[in-house]
């Protein structure tokens, strides 16, 4: 059995199922929204329902979750967010900070929903 941490957060804006989530205004609240860039500090992935603004939305913060892909990935790839909160392969650029939400547990293409080993962290490749 793989332990999983799932917690509900209030959505500040609509967020779909199986999307990468971030705190929408970390300085002022714990509300969440969809991640929109590979540099957003990510929180985890939403569950099967997502929600509208004001809804409580389950977010998997560690363990096995599911995520919608925004491009082609291979099994074992580190994943980050695209502009739509979907997961794409994290390809580090020298001198750039990047947020990684976890590791792909299966290969897939844009639109697929795959399992992910969720483990949000920052990634930096030196210049």
Offer a few descriptive terms.
127 residues; mainly beta; Virus Head Decoration Protein, Chain: A; 9-stranded antiparallel sheet; 46% strand
Question: In words, what does this structure look like?
Answer:
With 127 residues, this protein is an all-beta fold. 0% of the residues lie in helices and 46% in strands. Strands 1, 2, 3, 4, 5, 6, 7, 8 and 9 form a nine-stranded antiparallel β-sheet that branches. The radius of gyration is 13 Å and the shape is globular. The mean pLDDT is 94.
Shape, principal axes of CA atoms: globular
Question: How much helicity do the residues have?
Answer: under 10%
* Element pattern in H and E: EEEEEEEEE
Task: State mean pLDDT (0 to 100 scale).
Answer: 94
Overall tally of structural domains: 1
Task: Please name the CATH architecture.
Answer: Beta Barrel
CATH superfamily: Head decoration protein D
- In whole angstroms, the N-to-C terminal distance is 40 Å
CA gyration radius, whole angstroms: 13 Å
Low-confidence spans: pLDDT under 50, at least 5 residues? none
**Which secondary-structure class do the elements indicate?**
mainly beta
β content, as a range?
over 45%
Protein name: DUF2190 domain-containing protein
Organism: Rhodobacter capsulatus (strain ATCC BAA-309 / NBRC 16581 / SB1003)
């Amino acid at each position: 059995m793989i332990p999983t941490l799932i917690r509900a957060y209030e959505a500040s804006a609509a967020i779909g199922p199986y999307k990468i989530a971030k705190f929408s205004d970390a300085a002022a609240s714990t509300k969440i929204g969809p991640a929109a860039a590979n540099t957003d500090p990510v929180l985890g992935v939403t569950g099967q329902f997502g929600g509208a603004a004001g809804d409580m939305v389950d977010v998997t913060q560690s363990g096995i979750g599911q995520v919608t892909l925004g491009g082609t990935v291979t099994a074992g790839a580190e994943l980050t967010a695209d502009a739509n909160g979907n997961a794409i392969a994290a390809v580090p650029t020298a001198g750039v900070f990047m947020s990684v939400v976890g590791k792909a547990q299966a290969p897939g293409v844009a639109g697929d929903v795959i399992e992910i080993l969720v483990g949000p962290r920052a990634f930096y490749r030196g210049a």
